[in-house]
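hiii so um. not sure if this is the right channel but i have a protein structure encoded as tokens and i wanna go backwards to a sequence. like what aa goes where. can anyone help
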């Protein structure tokens, strides 16, 4: 890289090509004041505080935009410069409230710091002043226009980070202010309340509602941790004072999000201090009685006694456990070890079964490893095209969604979106294919037909890196675009266009989520995705890959550490004698070689009496599993149900024993995000009442049952054990994880981790093409149930809402379930926007408010599954994929009635 030498304040300094004077000076320790500048944003030179003297320039120049070229002579603090800055500051302060004694930002206000540094007590320009009312119209933050210095950091955050461009500078001259189009509310704009504008505001013009008036900057400590919501795995700081969280601050060096957050990460943490938190163990002392408070000894003794009795009377297979995608790797490891080593069964599973079990089976079949192949950075920075299928990326993985928007806007990347709904990312797509729910294989086969018949595929990659092509090709030739189009209900031309776009834009990254997996053909859908990317040669390179976006914060980790019925940690099969022997030796007990039951199988076996006791850690299957009425019946059939959680969830309310545990903000451990990155979760606040760590609780029960191998001094020792037993995690130790985390496989303590899988060689050697046929969903519309119901999530809620509905802002902005129905269908059924409707399937009915919108096609109804009072899973069908045993959440037949 070319370097230049310039002189700043008489000092010779080297600069790299492309650097500005401000960057070079800052790197050299010379502090030039700024207000509009922020390293996360492109410089605009608006505030004029960074003015410097540059030799042979007629006027002072803004250091933030002036290129640091060879031979420049710069003075950063000459009398002329300092006077200019003082002048600018006085102009700003002439219209700025001097209420620093009560201002929210005192101690962290950049304007206040500059006024102090330049000794400005009073502006010499007593001109006109604004007297705007406070804007308190949204539930997350306040805008105080009187404190706005029009630096436009918020506007640029909205443009350059989030990308929705909800705000801009409106009006002109003295009337200029920041606002939405037509000066409306943020709720009526595309704003997603990610809070990046609040983070970047240098004054108190924008400040969060949560924590207001409760703490000054210097009173708070900052604890770096990882978000408890989605699989993106954003890191940020929790701002803490006296045992309470008061806010979130960006962590700009965070590897997955680089300081960006979404609304849930930024404003959705207040559930931690909600009065509903469980603080003491609860016991139902008599069947049919109420849950009553108990002390820990009584609760733990009862659980140990009942589990021992059930094991002795019915055998180990009468017990099952659910570990949790919300809990840490260490806690999941302990739970699966409890099921295997103490109860003697492999009946352990968790909600990965309901979201990505077929990703594990499908990608393991095709590539030899069932995980996301690439990393966010290479996907965001290097992909020329994104093939998004079955992923509502901006709502379900919001920070990745922001990065995709930026890739489109800032470097012209293309998006092909395949989704039955007009989801928000559709606005950025070059091509949006709205296939009928349940027709993905036909669509993918149609695209691959064009690639093969027009000779547009990567022949070298196919020849050198794959096997099974001949049989696969024969199957693909059965799907000309016209046939695929007829099945999918889309124009054949769109299928051809998609193939041409993919063939001419390399590398291309495939992103998929539950729109692909939650089908009775989920495993084969995943195989089909793998087929497409192998055909295009898009595997093993930056900007490419098959990238399943894992839903929950630690669903990847819960799978990695053995929370599955067929594998120990690192996907070592329980049926493989060598693996079993290894774990038997390490744990000191004989282990079962029989593959255990999946979540979906556990419930039906509870109904038949084969499962007598269920121990659930951090999951809420009553809302999350299909056919909820049947799930409830199954849970009520159990002899003994233990639930360990932070709230009394719908499932916990049915339990015999409820054990209060720690929230994410109270514990040490690790989460593994969707890009296989293991990151720290750190304790920031104390637990309420008598809530205890999950790993401690399980260890205490095990000890009471006569097994001491589950009592650990701390999570570090649990991770040490995972390291010893798990080749892919062997080098991911507490001493190495640090701030950047480590991506598995990381086979030894010197290994840097693996950002991209299958480089040069697939984990299984050659990539395997599979001949995949389309098959219709298990239930299709008919005369009685003429609509397809498809379910999903919304930006403001998460899973079964046990956390998000206890967050004031998230609840206020999205208080109740909505049923999206197409305007044509609504008109035919006499349904007005906002009217209550009843949805019924063969399994149950729910009622909610209608949202009449063209987002869904005629004949398709969408509903988020989060809400207990209108639980979409009362309608869904428990038809399972035969390999991954995932339920067909995405398609079931319903009828809709106006109420
Ligand atoms: Fe948390 Fe996901 Fe939002 Fe990041 S994108 S802040 S991980 S919910």
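sure thing!! here u go:
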């Amino acid at each position: 890289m070319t370097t230049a030498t310039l002189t700043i304040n008489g000092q010779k300094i080297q600069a790299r090509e492309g650097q500005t004077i401000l960057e070079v000076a800052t790197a050299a320790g010379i502090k030039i004041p700024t207000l509009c500048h922020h390293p996360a944003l492109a410089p605009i030179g608006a505030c004029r505080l960074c003015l410097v003297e540059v030799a042979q320039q007629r006027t002072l120049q803004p250091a933030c935009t002036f290129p640091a070229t060879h031979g420049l002579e710069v003075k950063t603090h000459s009398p002329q410069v300092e006077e200019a800055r003082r002048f600018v500051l006085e102009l700003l302060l002439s219209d700025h409230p001097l209420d620093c004694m009560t201002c929210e930002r005192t101690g962290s206000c950049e304007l206040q710091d500059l006024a102090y540094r330049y000794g400005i007590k009073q502006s010499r320009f007593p001109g006109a002043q604004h007297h705007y009312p406070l804007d308190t119209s949204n539930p997350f933050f306040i805008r105080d226009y009187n404190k706005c210095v029009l630096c436009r950091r918020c506007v640029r955050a909205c443009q350059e980070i989030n990308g929705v461009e909800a705000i801009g500078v409106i009006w002109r001259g003295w009337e200029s202010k920041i606002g939405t189009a037509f000066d409306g509310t943020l709720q009526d704009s595309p704003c997603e309340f990610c809070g990046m504008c609040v983070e970047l505001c240098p004054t108190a013009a924008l400040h969060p509602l949560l924590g207001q008036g409760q703490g000054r900057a210097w009173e708070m400590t900052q604890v770096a941790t990882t978000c408890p919501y989605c699989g993106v795995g954003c890191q940020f700081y929790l701002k803490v004072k006296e045992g309470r969280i008061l806010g979130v601050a960006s962590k700009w060096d965070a590897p997955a999000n680089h300081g960006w957050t979404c609304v849930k990460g930024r404003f959705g943490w207040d559930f931690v201090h909600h009065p509903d938190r469980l603080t003491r163990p609860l016991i139902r002392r008599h069947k049919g009685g109420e849950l009553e408070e108990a002390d820990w000894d009584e609760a733990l003794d009862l659980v140990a006694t009942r589990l021992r009795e059930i094991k002795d009377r019915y055998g180990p297979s009468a017990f099952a456990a659910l570990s949790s995608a919300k809990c840490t790797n260490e806690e999941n490891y302990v739970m699966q070890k409890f099921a295997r080593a103490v109860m003697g069964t492999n009946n352990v599973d968790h909600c990965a079964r309901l979201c990505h079990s077929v990703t594990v089976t499908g990608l393991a079949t095709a590539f030899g490893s069932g995980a996301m192949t690439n990393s966010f950075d290479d996907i965001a920075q290097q992909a020329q095209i994104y093939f998004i299928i079955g992923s509502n990326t901006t709502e379900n993985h919001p920070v990745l969604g922001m990065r995709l928007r930026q890739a489109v806007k800032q470097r012209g990347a293309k998006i092909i979106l395949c989704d039955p709904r007009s989801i928000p990312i559709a606005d950025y797509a070059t091509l949006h294919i709205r296939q009928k729910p349940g027709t993905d294989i036909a669509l993918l086969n149609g695209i691959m037909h064009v690639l093969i018949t027009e000779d547009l595929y990567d022949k070298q990659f196919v020849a050198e890196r794959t096997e099974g092509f001949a049989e696969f090709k024969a199957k693909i030739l059965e799907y000309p675009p016209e046939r695929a189009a007829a099945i999918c209900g889309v124009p054949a031309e769109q299928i051809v266009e998609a193939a041409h776009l993919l063939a001419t834009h390399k590398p291309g990254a495939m992103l998929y989520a539950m729109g692909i997996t939650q089908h009775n053909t989920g495993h084969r859908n995943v195989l089909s995705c793998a087929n497409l990317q192998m055909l295009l040669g898009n595997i093993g390179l930056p900007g490419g890959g098959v990238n399943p976006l894992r839903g929950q914060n630690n669903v990847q980790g819960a799978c990695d550490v053995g929370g599955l019925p067929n594998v120990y940690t690192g996907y070592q099969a329980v049926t493989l004698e060598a693996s079993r022997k290894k774990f038997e030796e390490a744990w000191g007990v004989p282990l079962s070689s029989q593959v255990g039951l999946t979540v979906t199988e556990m419930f039906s076996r509870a109904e038949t009496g084969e499962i007598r006791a269920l121990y659930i850690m951090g999951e809420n299957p009553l809302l999350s599993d299909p056919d909820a009425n049947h799930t409830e019946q199954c849970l009520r059939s159990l002899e003994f149900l233990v639930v360990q959680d932070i709230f009394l969830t719908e499932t916990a309310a049915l339990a015999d024993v409820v054990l209060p545990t720690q929230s994410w903000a109270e514990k040490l451990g690790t989460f593994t995000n969707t890009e296989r990155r293991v990151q720290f979760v750190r304790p920031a606040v104390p637990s309420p009442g008598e809530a205890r760590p999950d790993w401690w609780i399980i260890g205490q029960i095990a000890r009471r049952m006569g097994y001491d191998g589950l009592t650990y001094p701390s999570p570090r020792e649990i991770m040490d054990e995972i390291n010893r037993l798990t080749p892919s995690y062997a080098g991911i130790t507490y001493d190495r994880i640090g701030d950047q985390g480590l991506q598995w496989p990381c086979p030894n303590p010197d290994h840097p981790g693996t950002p991209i899988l299958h480089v040069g060689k697939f984990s299984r050697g050659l990539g395997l093409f599979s001949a995949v046929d389309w098959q219709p969903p298990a239930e299709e519309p008919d005369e009685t149930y003429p609509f397809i119901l498809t379910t999903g999530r919304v930006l403001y809620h998460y899973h079964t809402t046990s956390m998000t509905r206890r967050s004031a802002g998230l609840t206020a902005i999205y208080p109740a379930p909505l049923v999206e129905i197409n305007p044509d269908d609504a008109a035919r059924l006499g349904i007005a926007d906002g009217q209550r409707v009843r949805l019924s399937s063969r399994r149950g009915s729910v009622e909610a408010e209608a949202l009449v919108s063209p987002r869904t096609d005629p004949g398709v109804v969408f509903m988020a599954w989060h809400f207990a009072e209108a639980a979409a899973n009362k309608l869904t069908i428990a038809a399972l994929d035969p390999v991954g045993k995932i339920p067909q959440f995405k398609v079931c037949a319903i009828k809709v009635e106006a109420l």
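oh and The longest strand covers residues 845-852.
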